Amino acid sequence: MSEEKPTIGVTIGDAAGIGPEITLKAISDKTNRAMCRVVLIGDAGHMRRLAAKLGVALDDIEIVDLNNLPTEFEIGVDAAVTGKASAEYIEKAVELWREGKIDAICTAPISKKAIALGGYNYPGHTEFIAELTDTTDFRMSFFADKLRVVLLSTHLPLTKAIERVKTAALVDLISFANREISKLLGRDITIAVAGLNPHASEGGMFGSEEHDEIIPAIEKCKSAGINVSGPYSPDTIFGRCASGEFDAVVALYHDQATIAVKSLAFGSGVNVTLGLPLIRTSVDHGTAYDIAGKGIADESSLIAAIKLAADLANQSRKPASI
Fold it and tell me: How far apart (Å, rounded) are the C-alpha atoms in residues 58 and 311?
Protein backbone atom coordinates (compact mmCIF):
# COMPACT_ATOMS: atom_id res chain seq x y z
CA MET A 1 0.00 0.00 0.00
CA SER A 2 1.21 3.50 -0.77
CA GLU A 3 2.52 5.50 2.17
CA GLU A 4 0.94 8.67 0.79
CA LYS A 5 -2.49 7.54 -0.32
CA PRO A 6 -5.08 5.29 1.32
CA THR A 7 -6.19 2.15 -0.47
CA ILE A 8 -9.93 1.83 -1.04
CA GLY A 9 -11.46 -1.55 -1.78
CA VAL A 10 -14.37 -1.10 -4.19
CA THR A 11 -16.84 -3.96 -4.58
CA ILE A 12 -18.49 -4.05 -8.01
CA GLY A 13 -21.97 -4.86 -6.69
CA ASP A 14 -24.63 -6.84 -8.52
CA ALA A 15 -23.27 -7.60 -11.98
CA ALA A 16 -26.80 -7.71 -13.40
CA GLY A 17 -27.20 -4.05 -12.45
CA ILE A 18 -25.21 -0.88 -13.05
CA GLY A 19 -22.57 -1.59 -10.38
CA PRO A 20 -19.75 -2.80 -12.65
CA GLU A 21 -20.42 0.00 -15.14
CA ILE A 22 -20.33 2.84 -12.63
CA THR A 23 -17.31 1.25 -10.95
CA LEU A 24 -15.33 1.34 -14.18
CA LYS A 25 -16.42 4.89 -14.91
CA ALA A 26 -15.66 6.04 -11.36
CA ILE A 27 -12.12 4.67 -11.30
CA SER A 28 -11.42 6.66 -14.46
CA ASP A 29 -12.04 9.86 -12.50
CA LYS A 30 -8.73 11.70 -12.19
CA THR A 31 -9.58 13.30 -8.85
CA ASN A 32 -10.13 9.96 -7.17
CA ARG A 33 -7.06 8.42 -8.76
CA ALA A 34 -4.98 11.30 -7.40
CA MET A 35 -6.18 10.96 -3.81
CA CYS A 36 -6.34 7.20 -3.32
CA ARG A 37 -5.37 3.81 -4.65
CA VAL A 38 -8.33 1.72 -5.77
CA VAL A 39 -8.50 -2.07 -5.57
CA LEU A 40 -11.50 -3.57 -7.37
CA ILE A 41 -13.14 -6.60 -5.79
CA GLY A 42 -15.14 -8.66 -8.26
CA ASP A 43 -14.93 -10.96 -11.24
CA ALA A 44 -11.92 -9.93 -13.33
CA GLY A 45 -13.12 -11.57 -16.53
CA HIS A 46 -16.45 -9.76 -16.45
CA MET A 47 -14.80 -6.44 -15.61
CA ARG A 48 -12.28 -6.74 -18.43
CA ARG A 49 -14.97 -7.58 -20.96
CA LEU A 50 -17.07 -4.66 -19.79
CA ALA A 51 -14.06 -2.33 -19.74
CA ALA A 52 -13.33 -3.16 -23.35
CA LYS A 53 -16.96 -2.45 -24.25
CA LEU A 54 -16.89 0.91 -22.43
CA GLY A 55 -13.41 1.87 -23.60
CA VAL A 56 -11.96 2.02 -20.08
CA ALA A 57 -8.33 1.06 -19.48
CA LEU A 58 -7.78 -1.42 -16.63
CA ASP A 59 -4.07 -2.01 -17.08
CA ASP A 60 -2.97 -0.20 -13.92
CA ILE A 61 -5.92 -1.16 -11.71
CA GLU A 62 -5.54 -4.09 -9.34
CA ILE A 63 -8.46 -6.52 -9.30
CA VAL A 64 -8.99 -9.03 -6.52
CA ASP A 65 -10.53 -11.70 -8.72
CA LEU A 66 -13.13 -14.00 -7.18
CA ASN A 67 -13.85 -15.57 -10.58
CA ASN A 68 -17.45 -16.27 -9.53
CA LEU A 69 -19.52 -15.26 -12.55
CA PRO A 70 -20.29 -17.23 -15.70
CA THR A 71 -19.25 -15.69 -18.99
CA GLU A 72 -22.90 -15.18 -19.91
CA PHE A 73 -25.73 -14.20 -17.58
CA GLU A 74 -28.88 -12.14 -17.86
CA ILE A 75 -28.64 -8.41 -17.26
CA GLY A 76 -31.39 -6.52 -15.47
CA VAL A 77 -32.91 -9.35 -13.44
CA ASP A 78 -32.56 -10.74 -9.94
CA ALA A 79 -30.73 -14.05 -10.01
CA ALA A 80 -29.03 -16.36 -7.55
CA VAL A 81 -25.73 -16.41 -9.45
CA THR A 82 -25.23 -12.64 -9.47
CA GLY A 83 -26.67 -12.24 -5.98
CA LYS A 84 -24.31 -14.82 -4.49
CA ALA A 85 -21.37 -13.27 -6.33
CA SER A 86 -22.14 -9.77 -5.03
CA ALA A 87 -22.35 -11.08 -1.46
CA GLU A 88 -18.99 -12.82 -1.86
CA TYR A 89 -17.40 -9.52 -2.92
CA ILE A 90 -18.54 -7.98 0.37
CA GLU A 91 -17.15 -10.88 2.37
CA LYS A 92 -13.83 -10.54 0.55
CA ALA A 93 -13.68 -6.80 1.16
CA VAL A 94 -14.08 -7.27 4.91
CA GLU A 95 -11.43 -10.00 4.82
CA LEU A 96 -9.00 -7.65 3.06
CA TRP A 97 -9.70 -4.97 5.65
CA ARG A 98 -9.08 -7.41 8.50
CA GLU A 99 -5.75 -8.33 6.90
CA GLY A 100 -4.76 -4.67 6.72
CA LYS A 101 -4.68 -4.70 2.92
CA ILE A 102 -7.24 -1.92 2.40
CA ASP A 103 -8.06 1.15 4.47
CA ALA A 104 -11.76 1.46 3.65
CA ILE A 105 -14.56 -0.20 1.72
CA CYS A 106 -16.72 1.45 -0.91
CA THR A 107 -19.64 -0.57 -2.26
CA ALA A 108 -21.51 -0.47 -5.55
CA PRO A 109 -25.23 -1.38 -5.27
CA ILE A 110 -26.56 -4.86 -4.63
CA SER A 111 -30.05 -6.31 -4.92
CA LYS A 112 -31.63 -7.47 -1.66
CA LYS A 113 -33.72 -10.01 -3.58
CA ALA A 114 -30.75 -11.35 -5.52
CA ILE A 115 -28.55 -11.92 -2.48
CA ALA A 116 -31.49 -13.73 -0.85
CA LEU A 117 -31.77 -15.94 -3.93
CA GLY A 118 -28.05 -16.56 -3.55
CA GLY A 119 -28.49 -17.75 0.03
CA TYR A 120 -27.73 -14.59 2.02
CA ASN A 121 -30.55 -13.40 4.27
CA TYR A 122 -29.78 -9.71 4.90
CA PRO A 123 -31.84 -6.57 4.25
CA GLY A 124 -28.79 -4.97 2.66
CA HIS A 125 -25.11 -4.03 2.91
CA THR A 126 -25.43 -2.36 6.30
CA GLU A 127 -26.67 -5.39 8.20
CA PHE A 128 -24.41 -7.76 6.27
CA ILE A 129 -21.20 -5.86 7.02
CA ALA A 130 -22.28 -5.34 10.62
CA GLU A 131 -22.55 -9.11 11.11
CA LEU A 132 -19.25 -9.72 9.35
CA THR A 133 -17.55 -7.29 11.76
CA ASP A 134 -19.44 -8.42 14.89
CA THR A 135 -21.04 -4.99 15.19
CA THR A 136 -24.32 -4.65 17.06
CA ASP A 137 -24.70 -0.86 17.32
CA PHE A 138 -24.72 0.66 13.83
CA ARG A 139 -26.79 3.17 11.90
CA MET A 140 -27.42 4.26 8.34
CA SER A 141 -26.49 7.82 7.45
CA PHE A 142 -26.08 9.94 4.35
CA PHE A 143 -23.34 12.50 3.75
CA ALA A 144 -23.52 15.13 1.02
CA ASP A 145 -20.94 17.85 1.63
CA LYS A 146 -22.28 19.80 4.66
CA LEU A 147 -25.51 17.82 4.79
CA ARG A 148 -25.20 14.79 7.06
CA VAL A 149 -28.32 12.84 8.01
CA VAL A 150 -28.66 9.97 10.50
CA LEU A 151 -31.77 7.78 10.41
CA LEU A 152 -33.85 6.63 13.36
CA SER A 153 -35.36 3.81 11.29
CA THR A 154 -34.68 2.49 7.80
CA HIS A 155 -36.68 -0.04 5.81
CA LEU A 156 -39.98 -0.12 7.71
CA PRO A 157 -43.58 0.61 6.76
CA LEU A 158 -44.33 4.20 7.71
CA THR A 159 -46.83 3.16 10.39
CA LYS A 160 -44.14 1.02 12.03
CA ALA A 161 -41.54 3.78 11.69
CA ILE A 162 -43.80 6.21 13.55
CA GLU A 163 -44.06 3.70 16.39
CA ARG A 164 -40.26 3.88 16.73
CA VAL A 165 -40.35 7.60 17.56
CA LYS A 166 -39.82 7.21 21.29
CA THR A 167 -37.76 9.20 23.77
CA ALA A 168 -35.39 6.36 24.68
CA ALA A 169 -34.68 5.51 21.03
CA LEU A 170 -34.02 9.15 20.20
CA VAL A 171 -31.69 9.66 23.16
CA ASP A 172 -29.74 6.63 22.00
CA LEU A 173 -29.56 7.84 18.40
CA ILE A 174 -28.62 11.44 19.23
CA SER A 175 -25.86 10.22 21.57
CA PHE A 176 -24.66 7.75 18.95
CA ALA A 177 -24.64 10.36 16.15
CA ASN A 178 -22.79 12.85 18.34
CA ARG A 179 -20.10 10.30 19.18
CA GLU A 180 -19.63 8.77 15.73
CA ILE A 181 -19.82 11.88 13.56
CA SER A 182 -17.61 13.86 15.96
CA LYS A 183 -15.11 11.01 15.68
CA LEU A 184 -15.19 11.09 11.86
CA LEU A 185 -14.93 14.89 11.64
CA GLY A 186 -12.41 15.19 14.44
CA ARG A 187 -14.34 17.90 16.29
CA ASP A 188 -17.44 18.62 18.34
CA ILE A 189 -20.61 18.90 16.26
CA THR A 190 -24.04 20.50 16.32
CA ILE A 191 -27.10 18.32 15.76
CA ALA A 192 -30.62 19.29 14.66
CA VAL A 193 -33.58 16.97 15.18
CA ALA A 194 -36.32 16.94 12.56
CA GLY A 195 -39.92 16.93 13.67
CA LEU A 196 -42.27 14.14 12.73
CA ASN A 197 -45.40 16.11 11.93
CA PRO A 198 -45.99 19.08 9.60
CA HIS A 199 -44.25 22.18 11.02
CA ALA A 200 -42.97 19.99 13.88
CA SER A 201 -46.63 19.84 15.06
CA GLU A 202 -47.02 23.66 15.37
CA GLY A 203 -47.11 23.52 19.15
CA GLY A 204 -49.32 20.46 19.29
CA MET A 205 -51.83 21.43 16.63
CA PHE A 206 -50.85 18.63 14.24
CA GLY A 207 -49.72 15.82 16.53
CA SER A 208 -48.34 14.98 19.94
CA GLU A 209 -45.09 13.14 19.20
CA GLU A 210 -42.97 16.28 19.37
CA HIS A 211 -44.22 17.17 22.86
CA ASP A 212 -44.44 13.64 24.22
CA GLU A 213 -41.32 11.98 22.80
CA ILE A 214 -38.98 14.22 20.80
CA ILE A 215 -38.56 17.28 23.05
CA PRO A 216 -37.89 15.17 26.16
CA ALA A 217 -35.15 13.32 24.26
CA ILE A 218 -33.53 16.57 23.14
CA GLU A 219 -33.61 18.00 26.65
CA LYS A 220 -32.07 14.86 28.11
CA CYS A 221 -29.25 14.96 25.56
CA LYS A 222 -28.66 18.65 26.17
CA SER A 223 -28.28 17.93 29.88
CA ALA A 224 -25.62 15.37 28.95
CA GLY A 225 -23.62 18.08 27.18
CA ILE A 226 -24.62 17.34 23.58
CA ASN A 227 -25.10 20.36 21.32
CA VAL A 228 -28.53 19.37 19.98
CA SER A 229 -31.67 21.37 19.25
CA GLY A 230 -35.12 21.01 17.72
CA PRO A 231 -37.48 19.64 16.75
CA TYR A 232 -37.46 21.65 13.55
CA SER A 233 -39.97 21.68 10.74
CA PRO A 234 -38.94 18.78 8.49
CA ASP A 235 -39.55 20.76 5.31
CA THR A 236 -36.79 23.28 6.11
CA ILE A 237 -34.23 21.72 8.45
CA PHE A 238 -32.38 19.71 5.81
CA GLY A 239 -31.76 22.80 3.70
CA ARG A 240 -30.53 24.63 6.76
CA CYS A 241 -28.04 21.87 7.47
CA ALA A 242 -26.91 21.80 3.83
CA SER A 243 -26.12 25.51 4.12
CA GLY A 244 -23.87 24.84 7.12
CA GLU A 245 -26.08 25.92 10.00
CA PHE A 246 -25.79 22.47 11.62
CA ASP A 247 -23.38 19.56 11.22
CA ALA A 248 -26.00 16.83 11.15
CA VAL A 249 -29.74 16.15 11.18
CA VAL A 250 -31.49 13.32 12.96
CA ALA A 251 -34.24 12.10 10.62
CA LEU A 252 -37.14 10.10 12.01
CA TYR A 253 -37.80 7.70 9.13
CA HIS A 254 -36.30 6.51 5.87
CA ASP A 255 -37.98 8.71 3.28
CA GLN A 256 -37.77 11.83 5.42
CA ALA A 257 -34.01 11.47 5.06
CA THR A 258 -33.68 10.15 1.53
CA ILE A 259 -36.11 12.55 -0.14
CA ALA A 260 -34.17 15.44 1.37
CA VAL A 261 -30.75 14.08 0.45
CA LYS A 262 -31.69 13.11 -3.09
CA SER A 263 -33.47 16.40 -3.71
CA LEU A 264 -30.67 18.57 -2.36
CA ALA A 265 -27.69 16.50 -3.47
CA PHE A 266 -28.70 13.87 -6.02
CA GLY A 267 -25.62 12.31 -7.51
CA SER A 268 -23.33 13.48 -4.72
CA GLY A 269 -24.99 11.83 -1.72
CA VAL A 270 -23.07 9.01 -0.05
CA ASN A 271 -24.41 6.27 2.20
CA VAL A 272 -22.17 5.92 5.26
CA THR A 273 -22.59 3.16 7.84
CA LEU A 274 -21.83 4.61 11.27
CA GLY A 275 -20.63 2.47 14.16
CA LEU A 276 -18.58 -0.06 12.20
CA PRO A 277 -14.93 -0.67 13.09
CA LEU A 278 -14.14 0.09 9.43
CA ILE A 279 -14.97 2.92 7.04
CA ARG A 280 -17.73 1.92 4.63
CA THR A 281 -19.30 4.22 2.07
CA SER A 282 -21.72 3.48 -0.74
CA VAL A 283 -23.82 5.06 -3.45
CA ASP A 284 -27.21 6.55 -2.59
CA HIS A 285 -29.06 4.53 -5.25
CA GLY A 286 -29.86 0.96 -6.24
CA THR A 287 -29.00 -1.45 -9.03
CA ALA A 288 -31.10 0.37 -11.67
CA TYR A 289 -31.89 -2.82 -13.57
CA ASP A 290 -33.94 -0.80 -16.06
CA ILE A 291 -30.84 0.87 -17.52
CA ALA A 292 -28.25 -1.83 -16.80
CA GLY A 293 -26.15 -2.81 -19.79
CA LYS A 294 -26.95 0.36 -21.74
CA GLY A 295 -23.80 2.28 -20.85
CA ILE A 296 -25.75 5.32 -19.63
CA ALA A 297 -25.53 4.94 -15.83
CA ASP A 298 -24.34 7.99 -13.87
CA GLU A 299 -21.26 7.30 -11.77
CA SER A 300 -21.39 10.58 -9.77
CA SER A 301 -22.50 9.04 -6.49
CA LEU A 302 -19.81 6.35 -6.60
CA ILE A 303 -17.16 8.96 -7.35
CA ALA A 304 -18.37 10.89 -4.29
CA ALA A 305 -18.40 7.68 -2.22
CA ILE A 306 -14.82 6.80 -3.12
CA LYS A 307 -13.69 10.36 -2.39
CA LEU A 308 -15.40 10.39 0.99
CA ALA A 309 -13.92 6.99 1.87
CA ALA A 310 -10.47 8.35 1.02
CA ASP A 311 -11.07 11.55 3.01
CA LEU A 312 -12.18 9.60 6.07
CA ALA A 313 -9.38 7.07 5.70
CA ASN A 314 -6.83 9.87 5.56
CA GLN A 315 -8.06 11.02 8.96
CA SER A 316 -8.08 7.67 10.68
CA ARG A 317 -6.36 4.93 8.68
CA LYS A 318 -3.99 2.45 10.27
CA PRO A 319 -0.75 1.32 8.62
CA ALA A 320 -1.46 -1.45 6.15
CA SER A 321 0.15 -3.24 3.26
CA ILE A 322 -0.98 -5.13 0.20
Answer: 24
Gap between the Cα atoms of 261 and 288, Å rounded: 18
Q: pLDDT truncated to tens, each residue of the chain (322 aa)?
A: 445 799 999 999 999 999 999 999 998 877 777 889 999 999 999 999 999 999 988 888 899 999 999 999 999 999 999 999 999 999 999 999 999 999 999 999 999 999 999 999 988 888 999 999 999 999 999 999 899 999 999 888 999 999 999 999 999 999 999 999 998 888 999 999 999 999 988 888 888 999 999 999 999 999 999 999 999 999 999 999 999 999 999 999 999 999 999 898 877 889 999 999 999 999 988 999 999 999 999 999 999 999 999 999 987 654 444 4
Distance separating alpha carbons of residues 4 and 113, to the nearest angstrom: 40
CATH architecture of 1-134+276-322: 3-Layer(aba) Sandwich (3.40)
